[in-house]
Amino acid sequence: RGTVLLQVRVAQISAQNILVLAEDRTEARRVELIRRDFVVNVSHELKTPVGALALLAETVQDAADDPVAVRRFTERMQREAARLSALVQEIIELSRLQVAGALKAVTTVPVRDVIDEAVDRARTTAQGKGITITTGGELDAVVYGDHALLVTALRNLLDNAVAYSNQGTRVGVGVSIASGAGLVEIAVVDQGIGIAPDSQDRVFERFYRVDPARSRDTGGTGLGLSIVKHIAADHGGEVTMWSEPGRGSTFTLRIPAAHESTVIVVDDELDL
Ligand code: ADP
């Protein structure tokens, strides 16, 4: 199983007896390393927009006599500031999810409500690119979860579907019920650029981007899919993907179905 980290403490409790306490610290150490890694990554990611802002401010000062240049540079400053703000917001969201018990308001949630809200918020950007978002399938399904977090998860998938698709394509949101597994599946299907096979395993990692330049252009932070993964896992569900470069991608969110009432089937032929 790899290396196990044991913390051993020894105490003499009487002339003849010693007490040995061994604690398995493997998991704690793993979490600590992930945290440290995260802090290093965050500092690195924050440096880029902050550096750009500092440089732009200097440039504006130098170009004070040229109103056209001032306008161009201040617009770029606004874009950098918006990116910085989105990044900070996602870092906070992810840190909140990494703390146990992130699900606050767990109730039965109609999937239609989650989809309506997420699609509504993604629609403006989609319309700007001439992308139509359609919904279909078992929209009456009900899941058990945190409404706000489910909207965040679906919103992230929709934002990506729109960001990594070309003008005039379609994005579909389809719901199906995997009743055997007690899960509701929400699939976001796009006809976008797709993801190369060797990047497919990595897209759920924090700050991983297939094409950093493109992600930056679309205002991506590289945190969206790791947020979705956390939300799915916190619900006792999962998120998976399928993709073919040049054809598109499908991201499927699986969340436990809610049962309004439990039906107990009594077999009255059975002689107990
Ligand atoms: P970002 O903020 O960069 O979009 P994500 O964590 O949401 O970060 O996604 C990680 C990377 O996975 C993206 O930078 C992009 O390269 C790739 N990706 C995510 N969704 C899609 C999609 N629907 N189509 C193509 N590539 C995608």
From TrEMBL:
Residues 41-259 form the Histidine kinase domain. Its main location: membrane. It comes from Sediminihabitans luteus. One of its GO terms (cellular component) is plasma membrane. The chain holds residues 126 to 397 of 435 of the full protein. Keywords: ATP-binding, Cell membrane, Kinase, Membrane, Nucleotide-binding, Phosphoprotein, Transferase, Transmembrane, Transmembrane helix, Two-component regulatory system. GO terms for biological process: cellular response to phosphate starvation. One of its GO terms (molecular function) is ATP binding. This is Sensor-like histidine kinase SenX3. It is found in: Cell membrane. Its EC number is 2.7.13.3. It catalyses: ATP + protein L-histidine = ADP + protein N-phospho-L-histidine.
